Amino acid sequence: MSQYHCPDAQTVQKLRDIANKLRIHSIQATDASKSGHPTSCCSAAEIMSVLFFNTMRYTIEEPKHPNNDRFVLSKGHAAPILYAAWAEAGLFPESELLKLRKIDSDLEGHPTPRLNFVDVATGSLGQGLSCAAGMAYTGKYFDKADYRVFCLIGDGESAEGSIWEAMAFASHYKLDNLVAIFDVNRLGQSEPTSLQHELEVYRARAEAFGWNALIVDGHSVEELTKTFWAATQVQGKPTCIVAKTFKGQGVPGIADEENWHGKPLGAKSEAAIKAIQENIINKGPHGVSPAPISKTLSPIKMSVQLASPPAYKLGENVATRLAYGTGLVKIGKSNDRVVAMDGDTKNSTFAQKFKIVRQSKNDQVTVVASCVTLFEAMKAADSLAASGVNIRIIDPFTIKPIDAATIIASAQETGGKIITVEDHYAEGGIGSAVSCAVSEQRNIIVKRLYVPEIPRSGPSGELLEKYGISASCIVKAVQSILSA
Ligand SMILES: Cc1ncc(C[n+]2csc(CCOP(=O)(O)OP(=O)(O)O)c2C)c(N)n1
Predict the structure, then answer these.
(1) Annotation: CATH topology of 347-483
(2) Is the CB of 157 under 6 A from ligand 1?
(3) How many helices and strands in the chain, by DSSP H and E?
(4) What is 9-277's CATH topology?
């Protein structure tokens, strides 16, 4: 176990000074844009200062270096302080900060990946921790790298259920490279949060979700440096830092007051900045660099190459998703960082060489089906083939976007006849999407099999039959469309 070395007094003061400079930048930038959230920035100033100038390891020359620690600002409305931190770190001139929210500036009201130091867009509250957990999972299990992931969450935001789904995920996968910081400034947008400063409740909840949880004074750089260090010592669990802060901290008359959410300070700015400046000892450049990234790591393999060249014949037509799937497999063979993700559909996507699932030169009908109905369609195809009728089967993979080109091309090759089959109501599913996709085509008809009423419980085979989406129903539908 490594020893904690408290930063010397000079460094501590520099971190305090940086925090106050970040406050001033946030006030000035939101004043310049006449919009934004300066008080939400002020509560996080020491957290950001310690993270960016003491704890996190990154190279300023390459904000997306694969070995850098990651930072996700889940409370994305505090974007001005994120931008201020990167400007203070030297990524771009401080003067840029005054372009906040201007139409031609990438320093938008909420962070987006248009910026080279932002991995995921945030601002819709509750989403950042899921992204951070995914990054930490990738770091621990795929990259096997030692970069860490930090995620700053608002206390009001922490009421979102998705935060707790991510908490459960992170502890289940023992993401000890993940640190969530709850900025518990007591106030939400329109009123105090339900827990206000009940820090022990936050701690108990985080612990109940399997996290290592630490309460800290979020305005004490000494406590923060120690707590962030402590988080690195914990194995097998993510760490939740419950930081007691005050909204608008540092601004007399505004700190911890209601009705200051999302408002530039305007006429009160000058006095606010003067008050904050009085606390800054080192007025000039702070001269603090971020902690260096790990030197012991071999750089993560970033090259994306096919393991073998494409093997298509000139002029051969190949469905895009088939080519995509084939290409993805080849890329994956050459780079183990390539990850294909889907929503529990790996047995119905390209990963198992699906997209057009079944085809022949003399298909008479195109059947579009998915999940359970896809298997029913396969059974129907076998049964129909025995009587000399071939059908083409497409798994749409997604309905938004729908692969209209493939569906239209298939329909044209199968006499303009399409049957959709879904374990879903008539509206808003495969049938609707396919009908919409072919609506401007001549000579294509769509027959739709779907669940016509509120379904009951029962054995799945009987239910498929009862609601008309079983293999035998597909066979009948094919016979019917062919005889029409
Ligand atoms: C999903 C979602 N709901 C509502 C909002 C609007 N909104 C923006 S900031 C905010 C309050 C956030 O409070 P808190 O998380 O405590 O952050 P603070 O500003 O106090 O740091 C709300 C409700 C949003 N951005 N996203």
Answers:
(1) Rossmann fold (3.40.50)
(2) yes
(3) 15, 10
(4) Rossmann fold (3.40.50)
